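Bug #2210: C-alpha coordinate dump truncated for Aromatic-L-amino-acid decarboxylase?
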Amino acid sequence: MDVQEFREFGKAAVDYIADYFQTIRDRPVLPSVQPGYLDDLLPKEAPQTGESWQDVLQDVDRIIMPGLTHWHSPNFHAYYPTAHSFPAIVGEMMSAGFGCVGLSWMASPAYTELEVAMMNWLGKMLHLPEEFLNCSEGPGGGVIQGSASEVTFVCLLAAKERKVKELRQINPELTEGDIKGKLIAYSSDQSNSSVEKAGLLGSMPMRLLPADDKGRLTASVLLDAIEKDKAQGLIPCYVVANLGTTPTCAFDDLNDLGPVCNKEQLWLHVDAAYAGTAFSCPEYRHLLNGVEYAESFNFNPHKWMLVNFDCSAMWVKDARYLVEAFNVERIYLKDNHKGLAPEYRHWQISLGRRFRALKLWFVLRMYGVEGIQKHVRNQIALAQYFESLVRSDDRFQVCTSSMGLVCFRLKGDDRLTKNLLEKVHQRRNIYVIPGQFHQRFVIRFAVCSRITERSDIDYAWQEFLSQAEEIVPCSKG
Ligand code: PLP
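Reproduced locally. Full output below:
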Protein backbone atom coordinates (compact mmCIF):
# COMPACT_ATOMS: atom_id res chain seq x y z
CA MET A 1 0.00 0.00 0.00
CA ASP A 2 1.50 3.33 -1.00
CA VAL A 3 0.91 6.71 0.59
CA GLN A 4 -1.84 7.65 -1.82
CA GLU A 5 -3.74 4.45 -1.11
CA PHE A 6 -3.23 4.99 2.60
CA ARG A 7 -4.85 8.44 2.29
CA GLU A 8 -7.84 6.92 0.53
CA PHE A 9 -8.15 3.93 2.85
CA GLY A 10 -7.74 6.08 5.95
CA LYS A 11 -10.35 8.59 4.83
CA ALA A 12 -12.78 5.82 3.88
CA ALA A 13 -12.24 4.19 7.28
CA VAL A 14 -12.91 7.47 9.10
CA ASP A 15 -16.09 7.89 7.05
CA TYR A 16 -17.07 4.34 7.93
CA ILE A 17 -16.61 5.01 11.65
CA ALA A 18 -18.49 8.32 11.41
CA ASP A 19 -21.40 6.59 9.61
CA TYR A 20 -21.33 3.82 12.19
CA PHE A 21 -21.61 6.29 14.98
CA GLN A 22 -24.37 8.25 13.27
CA THR A 23 -26.48 5.10 12.96
CA ILE A 24 -25.57 3.39 16.22
CA ARG A 25 -28.81 4.32 17.96
CA ASP A 26 -30.81 2.38 15.36
CA ARG A 27 -28.76 -0.80 15.61
CA PRO A 28 -29.80 -3.62 17.97
CA VAL A 29 -27.31 -3.28 20.81
CA LEU A 30 -26.62 -7.02 20.93
CA PRO A 31 -25.60 -9.09 17.91
CA SER A 32 -27.72 -12.03 16.81
CA VAL A 33 -24.88 -14.29 15.66
CA GLN A 34 -24.25 -17.72 17.16
CA PRO A 35 -20.93 -18.92 18.60
CA GLY A 36 -18.58 -19.94 15.78
CA TYR A 37 -20.30 -17.64 13.26
CA LEU A 38 -17.02 -16.25 11.96
CA ASP A 39 -15.59 -19.63 11.12
CA ASP A 40 -18.01 -20.05 8.22
CA LEU A 41 -17.27 -16.60 6.85
CA LEU A 42 -13.47 -16.59 6.86
CA PRO A 43 -11.12 -18.56 4.61
CA LYS A 44 -9.19 -21.19 6.53
CA GLU A 45 -5.82 -19.67 5.61
CA ALA A 46 -4.32 -16.24 5.04
CA PRO A 47 -4.40 -15.08 1.38
CA GLN A 48 -1.23 -15.76 -0.61
CA THR A 49 -1.34 -12.39 -2.29
CA GLY A 50 -2.48 -9.05 -0.92
CA GLU A 51 -6.04 -7.91 -1.43
CA SER A 52 -7.45 -4.44 -2.04
CA TRP A 53 -8.43 -2.19 0.85
CA GLN A 54 -11.85 -1.81 -0.71
CA ASP A 55 -12.44 -5.57 -0.39
CA VAL A 56 -11.18 -5.58 3.17
CA LEU A 57 -13.38 -2.65 4.20
CA GLN A 58 -16.37 -4.34 2.60
CA ASP A 59 -15.66 -7.44 4.66
CA VAL A 60 -15.52 -5.40 7.83
CA ASP A 61 -19.09 -4.47 7.09
CA ARG A 62 -20.14 -7.97 6.00
CA ILE A 63 -18.26 -10.11 8.53
CA ILE A 64 -17.22 -8.05 11.50
CA MET A 65 -20.09 -5.62 12.00
CA PRO A 66 -22.71 -8.38 12.56
CA GLY A 67 -20.55 -9.75 15.36
CA LEU A 68 -20.15 -6.49 17.26
CA THR A 69 -21.83 -5.67 20.53
CA HIS A 70 -22.45 -1.95 20.31
CA TRP A 71 -20.82 -0.66 23.49
CA HIS A 72 -21.45 2.93 22.51
CA SER A 73 -25.10 2.48 21.71
CA PRO A 74 -27.30 4.55 24.03
CA ASN A 75 -29.04 1.25 24.79
CA PHE A 76 -25.92 -0.30 26.28
CA HIS A 77 -26.31 -0.27 30.07
CA ALA A 78 -24.02 -3.14 31.08
CA TYR A 79 -20.83 -3.15 33.17
CA TYR A 80 -19.53 0.41 33.43
CA PRO A 81 -18.99 2.92 30.63
CA THR A 82 -16.04 2.37 28.41
CA ALA A 83 -14.85 5.65 27.07
CA HIS A 84 -15.24 6.76 23.47
CA SER A 85 -14.78 10.16 21.91
CA PHE A 86 -13.67 11.54 18.59
CA PRO A 87 -10.61 13.37 19.94
CA ALA A 88 -9.43 10.14 21.57
CA ILE A 89 -10.00 8.11 18.40
CA VAL A 90 -7.87 10.55 16.42
CA GLY A 91 -5.26 10.45 19.19
CA GLU A 92 -5.11 6.65 18.86
CA MET A 93 -4.80 6.96 15.11
CA MET A 94 -1.93 9.45 15.31
CA SER A 95 -0.15 7.35 17.91
CA ALA A 96 -0.33 4.39 15.53
CA GLY A 97 0.84 6.68 12.75
CA PHE A 98 3.96 7.72 14.63
CA GLY A 99 4.50 4.11 15.64
CA CYS A 100 7.26 4.73 18.19
CA VAL A 101 7.87 2.52 21.21
CA GLY A 102 8.63 4.67 24.22
CA LEU A 103 10.90 2.36 26.15
CA SER A 104 13.20 5.17 27.28
CA TRP A 105 13.30 8.94 27.15
CA MET A 106 15.42 8.99 23.98
CA ALA A 107 13.15 6.41 22.34
CA SER A 108 10.85 9.41 21.90
CA PRO A 109 11.22 12.31 24.34
CA ALA A 110 7.71 13.55 23.52
CA TYR A 111 6.22 10.26 24.74
CA THR A 112 7.68 10.53 28.22
CA GLU A 113 7.38 14.27 28.58
CA LEU A 114 3.76 14.50 27.44
CA GLU A 115 2.88 11.66 29.82
CA VAL A 116 4.54 13.45 32.73
CA ALA A 117 2.63 16.63 31.90
CA MET A 118 -0.71 14.85 31.41
CA MET A 119 -0.41 13.00 34.71
CA ASN A 120 0.16 16.35 36.38
CA TRP A 121 -2.86 17.87 34.62
CA LEU A 122 -5.02 14.92 35.63
CA GLY A 123 -3.73 14.84 39.20
CA LYS A 124 -4.47 18.54 39.60
CA MET A 125 -7.90 18.07 38.04
CA LEU A 126 -8.70 15.54 40.79
CA HIS A 127 -7.00 17.64 43.47
CA LEU A 128 -4.73 14.77 44.39
CA PRO A 129 -2.29 15.65 47.15
CA GLU A 130 0.81 17.30 45.72
CA GLU A 131 3.09 14.46 46.83
CA PHE A 132 1.56 12.13 44.21
CA LEU A 133 2.46 14.42 41.33
CA ASN A 134 5.47 14.35 39.03
CA CYS A 135 5.80 18.09 39.48
CA SER A 136 6.24 17.82 43.26
CA GLU A 137 9.66 18.02 44.89
CA GLY A 138 9.47 14.47 46.26
CA PRO A 139 9.71 10.96 44.79
CA GLY A 140 6.03 10.69 43.84
CA GLY A 141 4.62 10.61 40.37
CA GLY A 142 2.04 9.43 37.88
CA VAL A 143 2.19 7.07 34.93
CA ILE A 144 -0.26 5.66 32.39
CA GLN A 145 -0.78 1.91 32.50
CA GLY A 146 -2.94 -0.25 30.28
CA SER A 147 -5.54 -1.27 32.85
CA ALA A 148 -6.60 -1.04 36.48
CA SER A 149 -5.80 -4.76 36.71
CA GLU A 150 -2.17 -4.10 35.79
CA VAL A 151 -1.99 -1.26 38.31
CA THR A 152 -3.31 -3.36 41.19
CA PHE A 153 -0.83 -6.09 40.31
CA VAL A 154 2.17 -3.77 39.88
CA CYS A 155 1.44 -2.10 43.22
CA LEU A 156 1.12 -5.48 44.90
CA LEU A 157 4.56 -6.45 43.60
CA ALA A 158 6.04 -3.16 44.79
CA ALA A 159 4.40 -3.61 48.21
CA LYS A 160 5.92 -7.07 48.42
CA GLU A 161 9.44 -5.81 47.71
CA ARG A 162 9.02 -2.96 50.17
CA LYS A 163 7.88 -5.32 52.91
CA VAL A 164 10.77 -7.72 52.30
CA LYS A 165 13.27 -4.88 52.49
CA GLU A 166 11.67 -3.43 55.61
CA LEU A 167 11.66 -6.75 57.49
CA ARG A 168 15.15 -7.74 56.42
CA GLN A 169 16.47 -4.46 57.72
CA ILE A 170 15.08 -5.33 61.14
CA ASN A 171 15.85 -9.07 60.93
CA PRO A 172 18.75 -9.67 58.52
CA GLU A 173 18.65 -13.40 59.25
CA LEU A 174 15.24 -13.68 57.55
CA THR A 175 15.43 -14.85 53.95
CA GLU A 176 13.35 -13.40 51.14
CA GLY A 177 11.59 -16.75 50.90
CA ASP A 178 10.76 -16.76 54.64
CA ILE A 179 8.99 -13.44 54.23
CA LYS A 180 7.36 -13.81 50.82
CA GLY A 181 5.71 -17.10 51.75
CA LYS A 182 3.86 -15.42 54.61
CA LEU A 183 2.62 -12.20 53.00
CA ILE A 184 -1.07 -11.57 52.88
CA ALA A 185 -3.31 -8.95 51.24
CA TYR A 186 -6.81 -7.62 51.90
CA SER A 187 -9.72 -6.08 50.08
CA SER A 188 -13.48 -6.28 50.38
CA ASP A 189 -15.73 -8.93 48.90
CA GLN A 190 -17.10 -6.12 46.70
CA SER A 191 -13.80 -5.50 44.93
CA ASN A 192 -13.34 -6.16 41.24
CA SER A 193 -12.25 -9.62 40.06
CA SER A 194 -8.93 -8.07 39.03
CA VAL A 195 -8.06 -7.50 42.71
CA GLU A 196 -8.31 -11.19 43.54
CA LYS A 197 -6.40 -11.93 40.33
CA ALA A 198 -3.56 -9.62 41.40
CA GLY A 199 -3.20 -11.76 44.52
CA LEU A 200 -3.14 -14.93 42.43
CA LEU A 201 -0.58 -13.56 39.97
CA GLY A 202 1.59 -12.13 42.74
CA SER A 203 1.40 -15.25 44.95
CA MET A 204 -0.03 -13.23 47.81
CA PRO A 205 -3.38 -14.57 49.06
CA MET A 206 -6.02 -11.84 48.85
CA ARG A 207 -8.52 -12.01 51.69
CA LEU A 208 -11.87 -10.71 50.50
CA LEU A 209 -13.33 -9.38 53.72
CA PRO A 210 -17.08 -8.90 54.20
CA ALA A 211 -18.27 -5.41 53.34
CA ASP A 212 -20.85 -3.67 55.53
CA ASP A 213 -24.48 -3.15 54.50
CA LYS A 214 -23.43 -0.17 52.36
CA GLY A 215 -20.82 -2.22 50.47
CA ARG A 216 -17.85 -0.70 52.36
CA LEU A 217 -14.86 -2.34 53.94
CA THR A 218 -14.56 -0.99 57.47
CA ALA A 219 -11.44 -0.47 59.57
CA SER A 220 -12.74 -2.75 62.33
CA VAL A 221 -13.22 -5.69 59.95
CA LEU A 222 -9.79 -5.05 58.44
CA LEU A 223 -8.10 -4.75 61.80
CA ASP A 224 -9.73 -7.93 63.03
CA ALA A 225 -8.45 -9.85 60.00
CA ILE A 226 -4.96 -8.38 60.42
CA GLU A 227 -4.84 -9.39 64.10
CA LYS A 228 -5.97 -12.93 63.30
CA ASP A 229 -3.41 -13.29 60.53
CA LYS A 230 -0.58 -11.94 62.63
CA ALA A 231 -1.51 -14.42 65.37
CA GLN A 232 -1.12 -17.18 62.75
CA GLY A 233 2.38 -15.96 61.87
CA LEU A 234 1.33 -14.35 58.60
CA ILE A 235 2.63 -10.96 57.45
CA PRO A 236 -0.02 -8.41 56.38
CA CYS A 237 1.31 -6.44 53.42
CA TYR A 238 -1.19 -4.92 50.98
CA VAL A 239 -4.72 -3.47 51.10
CA VAL A 240 -6.87 -2.51 48.13
CA ALA A 241 -9.58 0.02 48.99
CA ASN A 242 -12.41 0.64 46.54
CA LEU A 243 -13.85 3.96 45.53
CA GLY A 244 -16.77 2.89 43.35
CA THR A 245 -17.08 -0.90 43.57
CA THR A 246 -18.08 -2.85 40.49
CA PRO A 247 -21.27 -4.41 41.92
CA THR A 248 -22.93 -1.25 43.32
CA CYS A 249 -20.46 1.67 43.08
CA ALA A 250 -19.95 1.73 46.85
CA PHE A 251 -17.19 3.84 48.40
CA ASP A 252 -14.83 2.72 51.13
CA ASP A 253 -13.98 5.45 53.62
CA LEU A 254 -10.26 6.13 53.25
CA ASN A 255 -10.21 8.16 56.46
CA ASP A 256 -11.41 5.02 58.24
CA LEU A 257 -9.11 2.47 56.55
CA GLY A 258 -6.07 4.67 56.06
CA PRO A 259 -4.89 5.03 59.68
CA VAL A 260 -5.01 1.24 60.18
CA CYS A 261 -2.94 0.69 57.05
CA ASN A 262 -0.39 3.32 58.06
CA LYS A 263 -0.12 2.04 61.63
CA GLU A 264 0.35 -1.55 60.45
CA GLN A 265 2.72 -0.44 57.69
CA LEU A 266 0.57 -1.89 54.93
CA TRP A 267 0.66 -0.54 51.40
CA LEU A 268 -2.76 1.02 50.77
CA HIS A 269 -3.78 1.04 47.13
CA VAL A 270 -6.97 2.83 46.05
CA ASP A 271 -8.93 1.49 43.09
CA ALA A 272 -11.28 4.14 41.68
CA ALA A 273 -11.35 2.66 38.17
CA TYR A 274 -14.80 3.94 37.24
CA ALA A 275 -15.72 6.62 39.77
CA GLY A 276 -12.39 8.45 39.77
CA THR A 277 -13.45 10.77 36.95
CA ALA A 278 -16.20 12.17 39.18
CA PHE A 279 -13.61 13.55 41.60
CA SER A 280 -13.01 16.27 39.01
CA CYS A 281 -16.38 17.69 40.16
CA PRO A 282 -16.11 19.60 43.45
CA GLU A 283 -19.36 18.05 44.72
CA TYR A 284 -17.87 14.51 44.56
CA ARG A 285 -14.26 15.26 45.53
CA HIS A 286 -14.96 14.53 49.22
CA LEU A 287 -15.20 10.83 48.35
CA LEU A 288 -11.46 10.90 47.74
CA ASN A 289 -10.71 12.38 51.15
CA GLY A 290 -8.15 10.32 53.03
CA VAL A 291 -6.20 9.45 49.86
CA GLU A 292 -3.18 10.98 51.61
CA TYR A 293 -3.00 7.72 53.63
CA ALA A 294 -2.52 5.71 50.42
CA GLU A 295 0.71 4.71 48.70
CA SER A 296 -0.97 4.47 45.30
CA PHE A 297 -4.13 5.62 43.56
CA ASN A 298 -5.65 4.63 40.26
CA PHE A 299 -8.56 5.52 37.99
CA ASN A 300 -9.38 4.74 34.40
CA PRO A 301 -9.81 7.63 31.98
CA HIS A 302 -10.78 4.77 29.64
CA LYS A 303 -13.92 4.22 31.68
CA TRP A 304 -15.69 7.50 32.34
CA MET A 305 -13.34 10.18 31.04
CA LEU A 306 -13.89 9.90 27.29
CA VAL A 307 -10.42 8.50 26.52
CA ASN A 308 -10.70 5.33 24.47
CA PHE A 309 -9.35 2.09 25.94
CA ASP A 310 -6.61 1.70 27.05
CA CYS A 311 -5.62 4.44 29.48
CA SER A 312 -5.36 3.78 33.20
CA ALA A 313 -3.90 6.55 35.36
CA MET A 314 -1.80 5.53 38.34
CA TRP A 315 0.01 7.65 40.92
CA VAL A 316 2.39 6.60 43.64
CA LYS A 317 3.72 8.56 46.55
CA ASP A 318 7.18 7.13 46.16
CA ALA A 319 8.14 5.83 42.75
CA ARG A 320 11.43 4.52 44.08
CA TYR A 321 9.63 1.42 45.34
CA LEU A 322 8.59 0.64 41.76
CA VAL A 323 11.94 1.48 40.24
CA GLU A 324 13.81 -0.58 42.81
CA ALA A 325 11.45 -3.51 42.37
CA PHE A 326 11.38 -3.52 38.56
CA ASN A 327 14.70 -2.04 37.49
CA VAL A 328 16.49 -4.37 35.11
CA GLU A 329 19.12 -2.45 33.14
CA ARG A 330 20.91 -3.31 29.92
CA ILE A 331 23.51 -1.33 28.04
CA TYR A 332 21.13 -0.88 25.11
CA LEU A 333 18.51 0.78 27.33
CA LYS A 334 20.68 3.49 28.86
CA ASP A 335 20.33 7.07 27.74
CA ASN A 336 21.36 10.32 29.22
CA HIS A 337 18.54 12.63 30.11
CA LYS A 338 20.33 13.69 33.27
CA GLY A 339 17.64 12.31 35.56
CA LEU A 340 15.23 14.97 34.36
CA ALA A 341 12.56 12.51 33.25
CA PRO A 342 11.24 9.26 34.69
CA GLU A 343 12.22 5.99 33.02
CA TYR A 344 8.70 4.71 32.89
CA ARG A 345 9.74 1.21 31.80
CA HIS A 346 10.67 0.61 35.45
CA TRP A 347 7.14 1.50 36.54
CA GLN A 348 5.39 -1.24 34.58
CA ILE A 349 5.49 -4.84 33.38
CA SER A 350 6.33 -4.51 29.71
CA LEU A 351 9.38 -2.85 28.25
CA GLY A 352 7.65 -1.14 25.33
CA ARG A 353 5.24 1.72 25.89
CA ARG A 354 2.39 3.07 23.78
CA PHE A 355 1.82 6.80 23.26
CA ARG A 356 -1.34 6.84 25.38
CA ALA A 357 -0.71 10.38 26.57
CA LEU A 358 -1.57 11.72 23.12
CA LYS A 359 -5.25 10.74 23.22
CA LEU A 360 -5.44 11.94 26.80
CA TRP A 361 -4.02 15.31 25.76
CA PHE A 362 -6.52 15.58 22.90
CA VAL A 363 -9.45 14.84 25.21
CA LEU A 364 -8.31 17.23 27.94
CA ARG A 365 -7.75 20.01 25.43
CA MET A 366 -10.87 19.53 23.36
CA TYR A 367 -13.32 18.90 26.24
CA GLY A 368 -11.56 20.87 28.93
CA VAL A 369 -12.18 20.09 32.60
CA GLU A 370 -15.62 21.65 32.27
CA GLY A 371 -16.55 19.35 29.39
CA ILE A 372 -15.59 16.31 31.46
CA GLN A 373 -17.51 17.59 34.49
CA LYS A 374 -20.55 18.18 32.28
CA HIS A 375 -20.36 14.63 30.95
CA VAL A 376 -20.17 13.14 34.46
CA ARG A 377 -23.03 15.28 35.76
CA ASN A 378 -25.18 14.47 32.76
CA GLN A 379 -24.72 10.72 33.20
CA ILE A 380 -25.45 10.91 36.92
CA ALA A 381 -28.59 12.95 36.24
CA LEU A 382 -29.73 10.31 33.74
CA ALA A 383 -29.16 7.54 36.28
CA GLN A 384 -31.15 9.52 38.83
CA TYR A 385 -33.93 9.91 36.31
CA PHE A 386 -33.94 6.14 35.77
CA GLU A 387 -34.03 5.64 39.53
CA SER A 388 -37.09 7.90 39.79
CA LEU A 389 -38.87 5.81 37.14
CA VAL A 390 -38.14 2.58 39.02
CA ARG A 391 -39.34 4.12 42.27
CA SER A 392 -42.57 5.23 40.64
CA ASP A 393 -43.69 1.62 40.17
CA ASP A 394 -44.64 -0.36 43.29
CA ARG A 395 -43.66 -3.68 41.76
CA PHE A 396 -40.02 -2.64 41.71
CA GLN A 397 -37.45 -1.91 44.35
CA VAL A 398 -34.33 0.24 44.00
CA CYS A 399 -31.54 -1.52 45.91
CA THR A 400 -28.70 0.96 45.34
CA SER A 401 -28.11 4.07 43.34
CA SER A 402 -24.68 5.66 43.12
CA MET A 403 -23.08 7.80 40.42
CA GLY A 404 -24.27 6.46 37.03
CA LEU A 405 -25.34 3.03 38.34
CA VAL A 406 -28.73 1.88 39.60
CA CYS A 407 -29.31 -1.65 40.95
CA PHE A 408 -32.93 -2.71 41.14
CA ARG A 409 -35.18 -5.74 41.24
CA LEU A 410 -38.76 -6.88 41.16
CA LYS A 411 -40.06 -7.24 44.71
CA GLY A 412 -40.47 -10.83 45.89
CA ASP A 413 -38.66 -13.99 44.93
CA ASP A 414 -35.39 -13.65 42.94
CA ARG A 415 -36.89 -15.79 40.20
CA LEU A 416 -39.06 -12.86 39.14
CA THR A 417 -36.06 -10.60 38.49
CA LYS A 418 -34.13 -13.41 36.80
CA ASN A 419 -37.10 -13.99 34.55
CA LEU A 420 -37.32 -10.28 33.76
CA LEU A 421 -33.65 -10.10 32.85
CA GLU A 422 -33.94 -13.16 30.64
CA LYS A 423 -36.89 -11.71 28.75
CA VAL A 424 -35.16 -8.38 28.26
CA HIS A 425 -32.03 -10.15 27.00
CA GLN A 426 -33.99 -12.23 24.53
CA ARG A 427 -35.37 -9.07 22.94
CA ARG A 428 -31.85 -7.63 22.54
CA ASN A 429 -33.10 -4.04 22.55
CA ILE A 430 -31.11 -3.02 25.59
CA TYR A 431 -28.16 -4.63 27.32
CA VAL A 432 -27.99 -4.94 31.10
CA ILE A 433 -26.24 -7.48 33.32
CA PRO A 434 -27.13 -9.12 36.63
CA GLY A 435 -25.65 -8.36 40.01
CA GLN A 436 -26.08 -9.29 43.63
CA PHE A 437 -26.88 -7.13 46.60
CA HIS A 438 -27.36 -8.55 50.09
CA GLN A 439 -27.70 -12.03 48.57
CA ARG A 440 -30.54 -10.85 46.33
CA PHE A 441 -30.48 -11.02 42.55
CA VAL A 442 -30.51 -7.52 41.04
CA ILE A 443 -30.31 -5.92 37.62
CA ARG A 444 -27.43 -3.50 37.21
CA PHE A 445 -28.38 -0.53 35.08
CA ALA A 446 -25.47 1.75 34.19
CA VAL A 447 -25.61 4.86 32.04
CA CYS A 448 -22.75 4.12 29.67
CA SER A 449 -22.87 5.75 26.27
CA ARG A 450 -21.74 9.32 25.77
CA ILE A 451 -24.84 9.91 23.62
CA THR A 452 -27.46 8.50 26.00
CA GLU A 453 -30.35 10.92 26.42
CA ARG A 454 -33.48 11.05 28.55
CA SER A 455 -35.48 9.47 25.73
CA ASP A 456 -33.10 6.47 25.77
CA ILE A 457 -33.73 6.07 29.49
CA ASP A 458 -37.48 6.16 28.81
CA TYR A 459 -36.95 3.54 26.12
CA ALA A 460 -35.04 1.26 28.49
CA TRP A 461 -37.66 1.69 31.19
CA GLN A 462 -40.41 0.78 28.72
CA GLU A 463 -38.49 -2.40 27.90
CA PHE A 464 -38.47 -3.36 31.57
CA LEU A 465 -42.10 -2.39 32.03
CA SER A 466 -43.37 -4.30 29.03
CA GLN A 467 -41.60 -7.47 30.15
CA ALA A 468 -42.47 -7.01 33.82
CA GLU A 469 -46.10 -6.81 32.78
CA GLU A 470 -45.90 -10.45 31.66
CA ILE A 471 -44.41 -11.50 34.98
CA VAL A 472 -46.24 -9.31 37.50
CA PRO A 473 -49.18 -7.64 35.75
CA CYS A 474 -49.83 -4.16 37.00
CA SER A 475 -52.84 -4.14 39.33
CA LYS A 476 -53.67 -0.48 38.71
CA GLY A 477 -56.67 0.11 36.46
N1 PLP B 1 -11.73 -1.95 39.34
C1 PLP B 1 -13.03 -1.66 39.20
C2 PLP B 1 -13.77 -1.01 40.35
C3 PLP B 1 -13.70 -1.94 38.01
O1 PLP B 1 -15.00 -1.67 37.90
C4 PLP B 1 -12.99 -2.55 36.95
C5 PLP B 1 -13.66 -2.87 35.69
O2 PLP B 1 -14.83 -2.67 35.51
C6 PLP B 1 -11.62 -2.83 37.15
C7 PLP B 1 -11.04 -2.52 38.34
C8 PLP B 1 -10.81 -3.46 36.07
O3 PLP B 1 -10.50 -2.52 35.10
P1 PLP B 1 -9.49 -2.83 33.89
O4 PLP B 1 -10.33 -3.43 32.81
O5 PLP B 1 -8.94 -1.49 33.52
O6 PLP B 1 -8.46 -3.76 34.39
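Output looks complete on our side. The pocket of pyridoxal-5'-phosphate is lined by residues 79-80, 147-149, 192, 194, 242, 244-246, 271, 273-274, 300, 312 (CB under 6 Å). Marking as cannot-reproduce; reopen if the truncation happens again.
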